[in-house]
Design goal:
Elements: H1 11-25, E1 39-41, H2 55-73, E2 77-79, E3 83-84, H3 89-99, H4 108-132, E4 143-144, H5 148-163, E5 167-177, E6 182-184, E7 189-205, E8 212-217, E9 226-231, E10 245-247, E11 254-259, E12 272-275, H6 280-289, H7 315-328, E13 332-345, E14 353-362, H8 368-377, E15 380-382, H9 387-396, E16 401-402, E17 404-405, E18 415-418, E19 424-426, E20 454-456, E21 460-461, H10 463-467, H11 470-475, E22 492-495, H12 499-514, E23 521-525, E24 528-529, H13 547-553, H14 555-564, E25 572-573, H15 576-599, H16 614-635, H17 639-667, H18 669-672, H19 674-695, H20 700-715, H21 735-757, E26 766-772, H22 776-784, H23 786-793, E27 795-801, E28 808-809, E29 817-821
Parallel strand pairs: 1-2, 3-4, 9-11, 15-23, 22-23, 24-25, 26-27
Antiparallel strand pairs: 5-6, 5-14, 7-8, 7-10, 7-13, 9-12, 10-11, 14-16, 17-21, 18-19, 18-20, 26-29, 28-29
Helix pairs in contact: 1-20, 2-14, 8-9, 8-12, 9-12, 13-14, 14-15, 15-17, 15-20, 16-17, 16-19, 16-21, 17-19, 17-23, 19-20
Bound molecules: zinc ion (2 copies).
Length: 822
């Protein structure tokens, strides 16, 4: 072995060097032509290009990068793509904010250009960050959902699902964000706790002027859309009123009093008004009782002409005006403070309205049983309990998925309408990709009425409609005839916060298209908490950009935090202490590797295997168990357990105990024998080579540096990351050697501790040490290691007696003691 490592561990110079090397040498390239190695495919999340690769992303990416690296070393041909989920509200809202505009203030083409420009800049920044952290994606597989080639596939799935009858167009209540001016899906509604007022409003009985029932509502501005008043059928207070009619205050219209079990007699007064629509419950009432619909709020969040004199007011203004008018008319009985949940837009946090709109939907509820069955029976979840998040969500859905959006920057819906009869024309597969806003359908005339003029669909697709097809698209659908080779994906990694969106939509979409679950396993990461224990968020002041720990301690130490921070799936607090701990470990490893590199200058690993000493066998036995433990943990995606096993072995057994106990053999072959030195060299080589391979998935840079300097000349693999995963050395674990070694190591530690207690330097010579073994067998084991005990503890004369005796007790070994005569 010829090359010694430099003295200092310097991640700043090491890390970028190997990142360039990996890229240049194509170390992580997926080989499409390789038909021999099994494939392993990762459904990498295409992130929204916010420009900021944050600590949450670091956690997420480190998990599946560890899996990718581990599988490569296990001999898999790993397919690890990276895409970008460009479209949708997040981008549009940011572009609107950046330029101080709304989507309607610039022509669509111009708006689109601004979005593309914004996305390209952000992708560049995030890609840099991903490379800087050493993630092993195959960049030749990179894609962007805003590219027409990606649209083509999104649109093709739309066309196929339409032909199946699974996509339809209909009038239906939808969640609507008045600020964003678009329909949004259930999954995009976030519930926030807000403090509002509960208003108690008096409704007059139509047939009995002067007699009132009081209803409680948080939304008096919906009074113009009141279509009924409801009570619980068993509510003794109101039973007698069912079937009679009430007068809507301020508007004078008459509405029926209906009975329904959905009414909660405990809420407010037990009498509620049904408006079209205050919430989803209203939608259920209207459907069940066949009530009519009055739309008093428009798409822009202002009152419509159905609100009479309140028309044109914003919702909040209308609420104020109506409350004042009720008060003036003596119809406002009282107000109370109320803390309740309000549905808001996930992007801009504006309260969501429920409006009835003509939209495109995907029929999903009839697939719920299949989704549940496959999620539970066919998909492995890490951790297992996370599957219930998907199951509960799927079962809770009441509405079909609204897939159209009234926005600009998104995949166009490939459809047109006949200008005369309104007949819907959906593109044929060979017309794709197509933007109907710019191209006419490829037919002469309307098949229904013969009209030759068409109107384009200007609505666009939900961005989840792009990203919920990744498993098939990563595999090469529909272009590669062999796409099934990579489908279903072997691993779908995701945060638990998007199980209800991404994982659910992937499931329902692929089941609808291909009849199969899109992935075999689902790896869930938790959220990253700030040092104050709250979610890490820019607005909380606890935000640490991922570049900061990387800058200070390197990518390997930052990745260490992500893995060591806690169990897979749990929320992980960001702690500088954990990053520093990782950095200290890596420095310790570096120093040990440097020591090894200096000690192996005259060692040839290809030579005949020497006869090993007990302590060498002891280390190899511990190593064998560490390899078994780490492998088992990695197979179960218990990353922190795997890393912990490797850390314990490396730090305390290899560095602190073994190296210390064999130094005398390496330094003094004249005294302790050439064979004993060779035995130590052989063991150091084997153990360190195994350590860096075990650690390679977690800390890819330092392990590559050590591999290239010390092992590549002998092992021959171009990179540690394509070297084979370590196997337990042949013949190990060796329980006998391990048990004997444990006694010797404990004895050496106890003698060293005793030196420290007597305030002697560690290298101080001891004239004579007598060991009382407590049994013949133990005495034999200790005698076999006499040289290592003498050499490590600097003992002049060592006497080992089989009987028990006086002196210092060795912890953990009753009957074993020693006495020192300095
Ligand atoms: Zn919004
Ligand atoms: Zn027509």
């Amino acid at each position: 072995m010829r090359k010694a490592l430099p003295k200092e561990y310097d991640p700043k110079s090491i890390e970028p060097k190997w990142q360039e090397f990996w890229e240049r040498e194509g170390i992580y390239r997926f080989n499409w032509d390789d038909k021999e190695r099994p494939v392993f495919s990762i459904d990498t999340p295409p992130p929204y290009p916010s420009g900021d690769f944050h600590m949450g992303n670091v956690l997420n990416w480190t998990y599946f990068d560890v899996v990718a690296r581990y599988k490569r070393m296990r001999g898999y041909n790993v397919h690890f793509p990276q895409g970008w989920d460009c479209h949708g509200l997040p981008t549009e809202v940011r572009v609107e904010q950046k330029h101080g505009i709304t989507k309607t203030q610039v022509p669509p083409q111009e708006f689109r250009r601004l979005c593309v420009e914004f996305i390209e800049e952000n992708i560049k920044a995030m890609k840099e960050a991903m490379k800087r952290l050493g993630y092993s994606m195959d960049w030749s597989l990179e894609y962007k959902t805003m590219d027409p080639d990606y649209w083509r596939r999104t649109q093709l799935s739309f066309v196929l699902l339409y032909k199946q009858g699974r996509i339809y167009r209909a009038q239906h209540p939808v969640n609507w964000c008045p600020r964003c001016g678009t329909a949004i899906a259930d999954a995009e509604v976030e519930y926030e706790t807000r403090e509002d007022k509960l208003y108690f409003v008096r409704f007059e009985l139509a047939e009995e002027p002067g007699r009132f029932l009081t209803i409680a509502t948080t939304r008096p501005e919906l009074i113009p859309a009141c279509v009924a008043v409801a009570v619980h059928p068993e509510d003794e207070r109101y039973k007698a009123f069912v079937g009679r009619r009430m007068r809507v205050p301020l508007f004078g219209r008459e509405v029926p009093i209906i009975a329904d079990e959905m009414v909660d007699p405990e809420f407010g007064t037990g009498v509620v008004m049904i408006c079209t629509y205050g919430d989803k419950e209203d939608v259920r009432f209207v459907a069940k009782h066949g009530l009519s619909v009055i739309s008093c709020i428009g798409e822009d969040g202002r009152m419509t002409e159905r609100a009479g004199e309140y028309a044109g007011l914003a919702v909040e203004e209308a609420r104020g005006a109506i409350v004042e008018d009720l008060r003036a008319a003596g119809l406002l009985e009282r107000e109370e403070q109320l803390v309740h949940e309000v549905g808001t837009c996930w992007r801009c946090h504006t309260p969501v309205e429920i409006l009835v709109r003509e939209q495109w939907f995907m029929r999903i509820r009839d697939l719920t049983d299949k989704v549940v069955e496959k999620a539970v029976e066919e998909v492995r979840w890490y951790p297992d309990y996370m599957k219930w998040r998907l199951v509960d969500w799927a079962r809770s859905l009441e509405w079909d998925w609204v897939i159209s959006r009234q926005r600009v920057f998104a995949t166009p819906i490939p459809a047109w309408y006949c200008a005369r009869c309104g007949h819907v024309i959906v593109a044929e597969p060979d017309w794709l990709p197509v933007d109907p806003r710019e191209e006419a359908p490829r037919i002469e005339r309307c098949p229904k009425c013969g009209c030759e003029e068409f109107r384009p669909e200007t609505d666009v697709l939900d961005t989840w409609f792009d990203s919920s097809l990744t498993c098939a698209i990563h595999a090469g659908w529909p272009d590669r005839p062999d796409w099934r080779r990579l489908f279903p994906a072997d691993l779908h990694p995701s945060g638990y916060d998007i199980i209800r969106t991404w994982a659910y939509y992937l499931m329902v979409r692929h089941i609808a298209l291909f009849g199969e679950a899109p992935f075999r396993a689902c790896l869930i990461n938790g959220m990253v908490l700030g040092t104050d224990g709250r979610m890490m968020h820019k607005s909380y002041g606890n935000y640490v950009p991922a570049s900061e720990p990387v800058e200070r301690y390197g990518a390997d130490a930052t990745r260490w935090w992500a893995i060591a921070g806690g169990a897979t799936g749990s929320d992980i607090p960001f702690r500088w202490g954990e990053v520093q701990h990782g950095w200290r470990f890596l420095r310790k490893l570096w120093n040990a590797a440097r020591f090894v590199s200096l000690q192996l200058s005259d060692y040839e690993p290809s030579g005949p295997e020497p006869e090993l000493e007990t302590l060498d066998k002891w280390l190899l036995s511990k190593l064998a168990k560490t390899i078994e433990e780490a492998t088992e943990a990695l197979e179960e995606c218990r990353f922190n357990m795997a890393l912990d096993a490797i850390r314990r072995f490396t730090w305390s057994l290899f560095c602190d105990q073994y190296i210390e106990a064999v130094k005398h053999r390496l330094y003094g072959p004249e005294k302790y024998g050439r064979e004993a030195k060779k035995s130590a060299q052989h063991t150091l080589y084997k153990a360190l080579y195994a350590i860096i391979r075990l650690l390679a998935p977690f800390c890819p840079h330092i392990t590559e540096e050590i591999y290239q300097a010390l092992f590549r000349p002998y092992e021959g693999h171009k990179s540690v990351h394509i070297s084979p995963w370590p196997e337990p050395p042949k013949g190990y674990p060796d329980e006998k050697a391990e048990g004997d070694g444990d006694v010797v190591v404990a004895l050496i530690s106890a003698i060293r501790r005793e030196k420290a207690r007597r305030r002697l330097p560690l290298n101080a010579p001891l004239k004579r040490v007598v060991v009382f073994a407590g049994s013949q067998e133990r005495a034999k084991a200790i005698r076999a290691c006499e040289d290592d005990i003498i050499g490590t503890c600097k003992i002049g004369a060592l006497e080992v007696r089989a009987e028990g005796g006086e002196g210092v007790q060795v912890e953990g070994y009753p009957g074993l003691s020693f006495s020192i005569k300095p």
